[in-house]
Amino acid sequence: MGSALVLGPFVVLVAVYGGWGFSALVAVASIVILWEWLRMIGAKPRTPLLVIGAATLVVAILLLAIRPPPVAIGMVVLGAITAALVARSNPERRTWAPFGVVYAGALALPAIVLREDAAFGLVSLVWLFAVVWSTDIAAYFCGRLVGGPKLWPRVSPNKTWAGTLGGTFFGMLAGMATLYLAGVESALLAAPMALLASLASQGGDLFESAMKRHFGTKDSSQLIPGHGGLMDRLDGFVAAAALVLLIGLIRAPGAPAQGMLLW
C-alpha cells in the first residue's frame, strides 16, 4: 500500500508538468513492462529482444515529436516484426515475444499522444487515471462486500460479477466527475467513453491474469514491494489507454484527446 501511495502522486505530478520529463518517465515504464513481459513468457534470447524492443520504443516516442501518431505506431509494428525474426525457443514463445513490443507500445504511445494535446492533454490523462483507478478500487471493494458468482474463475478466481459491475459503474462516475470538475462541456459528460474505458481496463486485467496463469507466473516481477511488477499495476491502464486513443484518432486525427472527450 505504501508503494502505491508514493507512486500514484508522483506519476500525477510528472503528468501535470508534461514535456520531456513525462515522456522520459513513460519511456522507462514501457521498457520495464517489456522486460517483465519477456521475463514472464521465458523468451529467448531475452537481452537482444529487450534491446530491440527498447530501441523501438525510444524511436517511436521521439517520432511523436515530429510526425503524426500513425508513424510511431508503424515503428512499433516494425519493431515487433524484427523481434519475431530474432526470437527463438519454442514456437509459442516466438509468437508472444514480439507481442510484448506491441504491449509496451500500447502504454507509451497513448499516454504521450494524449498528454501532448494542447487543449485537453492533462484533462484527458487525469480522466483516464480517474476511470482506471476508480474501476480497480471499486471492483475490489464491491467484490469483497457483495460477493456472489465468479466472473471467470479459471483465469481470476477472486473476481466476481458484482465487482465487475460495481467497478464499471464507479469508473464511469469518476470519468464524468472529472470532466464536470474540469469544466469540459461534453454530452452526458462523455459517459459512454468512460464506460468503455472502464470495461477495457477490466479486460486488460483479465488478459494479464490469463497470461500469467498460462505461463505459470504469479507476478510479472517483484519491482514494487507488495504489488508485484509494473505490469501488474498498469495492465488495466494499457488496455483502456489503447482503446480511447484509437477512438480519439478515428474521431479527431489531429486532436485525439478532444476526439475521445468531446461529444
General description of the model:
Keywords: Cell membrane, Lipid biosynthesis, Lipid metabolism, Membrane, Nucleotidyltransferase, Phospholipid biosynthesis, Phospholipid metabolism, Transferase, Transmembrane, Transmembrane helix. It is a single chain. This protein has 263 residues and is mostly helical. It folds into two domains: 1-116, no CATH class; 118-263, no CATH class. It has helices at residues 2-17, 19-41, 46-63, 69-86, 91-115, 121-146, 161-182, 191-215, 230-251, 256-261; strands at residues 150-152, 156-160. The protein has a two-stranded antiparallel sheet with strand order 1-2. A hairpin with a 3-residue loop joins strand 1 (150-152) and strand 2 (156-160). Helix 3 runs parallel beside helix 5 and helix 6 (121-146) packs antiparallel against helix 7. The longest helix has 26 residues, at 121-146. The model has no long low-confidence stretch (mean pLDDT 92).
Write the layout of secondary structure elements.
Elements: H1 2-17, H2 19-41, H3 46-63, H4 69-86, H5 91-115, H6 121-146, E1 150-152, E2 156-160, H7 161-182, H8 191-215, H9 230-251, H10 256-261
Antiparallel strand pairs: 1-2
